[in-house]
Amino acid sequence: xxxxxxxxxxGSFTDFAIFDEQSKxxxxxxxxxxxxxxxxxxxxxxxxxxxxxxxxxxxxTYFTHGTTVGVNTVVQRKGLxxxxxxxxxxxxxxxxxxxxxxDMYSLLSKRPAPLVSRDMVFGIAGRMLADGSIVEPLDExxxxxxxxxxxxxxxxxxxxxxxxxxRDGALERQAKAVVERxxxxxxxxxxxxxxxxxxxxxxxxxxxxxxxxxxRVSHYLGSLQSxxxxxxxxxxxxxxxxxxxxxxxxxxxxxxxxxILSGTASGVIGASxxxxxxxxxxxxxxxIGGTTADVALIVDxxxxxxxxxxxxxxxxFIPSVSVSSIGEGGGSIAWVDRLGVLKxxxxxAGSRPGPACYGxxxxxxxxxxxxVATGLVGHSDLGYNAVHVxxxxxxxxxxxxxxxxxxxxxQTAEAIVNIAVSGMFSEVxxxxxxxxxxxxxxxxxxxxxxxxxMACFLARELKMREVVVPPTPGVLSALGGxxxxxxxxxxxxxxxxxxxxxxxxLKEAFAELRANALSWLKDDQGYDGPYALAFSADMRYRGxxxxxxxxxxxxSIESGRFEALAEAFHVAHEQMYGHADRTAPVQLxxxxxxxxxxxxxxxxxxxxxxPGRAVSDKSVEVFLDGAxxxxxLYRREAxxxxxxxxxxxxxxxxxxxxxxxxxxxxxxxxxxxLRIVLGxxx
Amino acid sequence: xxxxxxxxxxxxxxCAAAAESMGYTLMRTAYSTFVKETEDFSCQILTxxxxxxxxxxxxxxxxxxxxxxxxxxxxxxxYQEGDVYCTNDPYSGYVATHSPDLHLWMPVFSGxxxxxxxxxxxxxxxxxxxxxxxxxxxxxxVHQEGIRIPPIRLMRNGVMNDDVLRILNLNVRVPxxxxxxxxxxxxxxxxxxxxxxxxxxxxxxxxxxxxxxxLLDYAEEQARSLVRSIPDGDYNFSDYADEDSVNxxxxxxxxxxxVRGDALTMDFTGTDPQLVSSLNMPTGGNxxxxxxxxGLIYVLYTLDPTIILNSGTVRMLNTILPPxxxxxxxxxxxxxxxxxxxxxxxxxxxxxxxxxxxxxLPASPxxxxxxxxxxxxxxxxxxxxxxxxxxxxxxxxxxxxxGAEGSGxxxxxxxxxxxxxxxxxxxxxxxxxxxxxxxxxxxxxxxxLALMMEFQLFAPQSMVTARNRDRCLIAAWGACGxxxxxxxxxxxxxxxxxxxxxxSDIVPLEPGDMLLLVGPGAGGYGHPHxxxxxxxxxxxxxxxxxxxxxxxxxxxxxxxxxxVDGPETQRLRAALAGKASKEHFGHGAGxxxxxxxxxxxxxxxxxxxxTAAPVTWRFFVKHQLFKAMEGxxxxxxxxxxxxxxxxxxLATRFVDLPPPPRLRTVASTGxxxx
Lengths: 682, 674
Description:
The structure holds two protein chains of two kinds. Chain A is of the alpha/beta class. In chain A, 33% of the residues lie in helices and 28% in strands. In chain A, strands 13, 14, 15, 20, 23, 24, 29, 32, 35 and 36 form a ten-stranded mixed sheet that branches. In chain A, strands 3-2-1-4-11-12 form a six-stranded mixed sheet, with helices on both faces. In chain A, helix 11 packs across helix 12. Chain A starts with a strand and ends with a strand. Chain B has 17 helices and 22 strands. In chain B, the strands form five sheets. A seven-stranded antiparallel sheet of chain B has the order 2-1-5-4-3-6-7. In chain B, strands 14-15-21-18-19 form a five-stranded antiparallel sheet, covered by helices on one side. A four-stranded mixed sheet of chain B has the order 8-9-10-11. In chain B, helix 14 (600-612) runs parallel beside helix 16. Chain B is globular and about 80 Å long. The two termini of chain B are 47 Å apart. At the A-B interface, helix 7, strand 22 and helix 12 of A face helix 1, helix 5, helix 6, helix 7 and strand 13 of B.
């Protein structure tokens, strides 16, 4: 028996979730993140665990870790200086991206500067066609010349991305061999090896981001491994991945691109687990931190997956848990425009200086300051005493705006909250329409440092049926790492017209993917437990410019029943777009396989419900729904399963504050989750 | 009832959310490729009088933020819950701007009271008429551009008027496509209705009604406040499209912006007469017509990206749109390709405002962007039609930065099609695709480079269309000392017996034919010799600018290894500074040549002659006079006499034409005709 520890590094705080295998209890810890010295916070936290909970490093038997090192490398543009080798006469793949400009109403808007500037992009003769045939051999001399020129210009690595290499990476491998011969030791990344999808920009940017972050991430992981060893932690760290799974640290060093969005993904995995254990079939997770506000849809315990998730200025096209940003989090700044209209964001105080009430030098009113000024937040310290809340400072900065608006500090603070919530409402509402779902059918699962304080407001606007706040909402991402399975995605781009002729090719492709997947799980991850394989394919009607990923059954693939595969696509198309055309020809672009090996999950004991009224700690004065009032404040740790209370109320705990609005009734379920239901009678 | 300014933003967010929900619903369920690929659609929440209050900001076309449904809404007086109305006729109420755009509107009721409307439109792939897809520059009357549905009730009590559909189905080429798109449009207005009712529930009926008006007032106040920051004055500018019809003469859009305090007038007097081709813009003379205000919206938003955009934004505007001109054509002029001149109009508006605010607005974008479509066949004879992507030019150099490369500014919403997708879908070989060195106008801030594509088709009877080809004669202008961008070009078989295709927009191909399409570069901003030397060096290193042009345009002498020859650079830059143009606009050679013949004086006279002529005669007279002036540059007096003689001869031949104006009056009136 020992401890299972999940660690997640966020923009402001680093969260620890500690599961005690003996007592089956979950505990949590937060320390400040150290963007200046990534990794230091992990060590500080591990020492903190010993001091606070008596967890000795030697007892940590399982360790998962999500990190923003990769994202930060891209955001801060501190990655490897790369050269990019592309097919001759197609040099502008990064400059042009997909042509579209971010702000389409501004005449001055531009695409972000590419990660590889044009002087470091080299066109190489050698041409493959769409069917994989080579019409012009690779000009090896050109590759040699390019390597020399790139090295002379200070290149620290080379990315190779040739047209149609999703079909066959032969030309890329040939060029890679030349680079390795001319310049041994220079890191080389091939687009066909990183993630072989069709569409040259999407494949190239994915490979470029992978190469760009690789040295920093792998150096970081190496030092983390040795630091944990020095501390005496016996567990080899596992890394959370963008696809919601985990992998070994050794593999993470090779495939950094896979773990770039690990933090956001593992939050959603944690939320999915909570939703599943509570039996919530339709759930939207709401993760609000100091610098980000994200939502994700979870149906039947499964999060949505997608490609094209944002990393700083760019998108990355490997399969990821689909998370949508709906704002800039608790640090968003409120301001008054020259016509006297109050606004919130998009400017953010970030984690430094952060909200004024943190006393770290912030001097403009943020959403968090507004909550403090209404009296809803700030009755105890935040983040396990890492932050002392200075109510005076919050009132002072909100007061500046109040003067301009000629209203009270509390009224102004509440207006800021309402505007912030309506902005989030607007984003969420659009997102739900995109997927054609109705918010009234969903529960809102709130986490992150600021999620629980805003969730009820948002649920009220969206008329959602329920808000769920897990026992340790501040560290759900860290918990997600403990839940996640070993998981990897495999693809092969085929570009087939779906019909009888395509089936042998498809069958062979899936057989190959399956062999690769099993080898990954057993050989690379050293795992020999039960596993699951999920087959699917990206398909479309001929002439469409986008594909839909439709789940397939392996039986139909084996027996060559293309009609069944086509039907799977028609159904998926109908679900997504409301119509399907069963007479139209279908193309199968990409075969996909996801393998997952089950990890042992922490089991949370179900506690017995003892229905009763919750007992409040004290009453506090707040400004809510336009009036001053006195509301009960409950301590989260004092609430027991079965306890019930009505809003308006506040629940304070170490890592966050939950606001329960009038008209909602809260109760504690058998897993300790707060279930806040709209309009139910107590 | 007045909504507090501290909560107005809350209502704005809820309205924006409703509009976005409408947009996503439409995009998600539509069939048409125009919707899914180029996002050629709009949707909006409208006041009871048809003014747009909210429209989605992140999707859809950028042209319709202030769309005015007033005229069509007023055609009915018995609105009921469950009604839906539609029209696609460009001449009935001036909501639809060409026949493929089908517009829908639906009344929203609360407690039995008509509160507001929701509306939308989709560009249908085909609406019938003379040519597939209904659009061609060659068409001369709106009747050739497909079936026209007058403003009509499509639904009552939620029940479809099937008679309308039966007529529609019979007249279009792929009815199931139109039917699919119509269903998406219906789903969209229904979502809009439901969302608006949700907002009413949230805010209360009175607050909602007052709030809509306040949102218009708020946008108006924001715009007025911006206009106050523009110096009072008259700002005149013109620009041209290369051709007013197939192989025709240039067509001019002329604008005088008058700024007075917090109000604007945009006076289009001096703009060319309507055409016997489909480039005309059907505005009905509505001073706030969205085709006319697009450029202004770009300008205001660029000045302040935090403003909200709705019908209130343009309330401070008065517009003069002379009847019978391309900016206010009369029935039955064809209008299908009005986008080409709408784009030119946007650039003219930007140009006029750069005179007022030279340090806040950019030079001309490349514009003249072609949407390239291919029709060819596979080896086994299956016909393939596909869009292979837009080929245009970058954004103009701005007061703070270089322009975006390859596309941007008023063309920012377009996406390209990947080379790998094109080559997989179509039997096509793309040989080159990328940016064109030296095509961006030189400047302190360089214009964005042009985009080029070189490709080859292999099947007989293949056909390429390049909609909106332009700018191979009149290039994108530079500003504040910046140079013009490079002109565009279109060439068949550039490496063999090259054929110059100029502005052709339909090209039949022989098997193996190669096409090279080069878009126009954007204009530069500020004097090129003031561009920091290190940025010129970087441009050369990156291949945006050649060593030769670094020397001739920027005055930077570079050795072959990229090192700067300091003394030589100093000498070159001093020389450039000495002969730097004092003109605000930097025009390309094509326009300079053109204006040697067509001086301001001659154009003023031409406008005067044409304004006096009957509308149906104007295009003919213009062509006769252009022909008469060919190869006859004007003397120092502006060359008015020759033009007057030419017209006198014409008026003698055709008795329906009015007599020539008296010359003395013309000479003294200066710029625009009285």
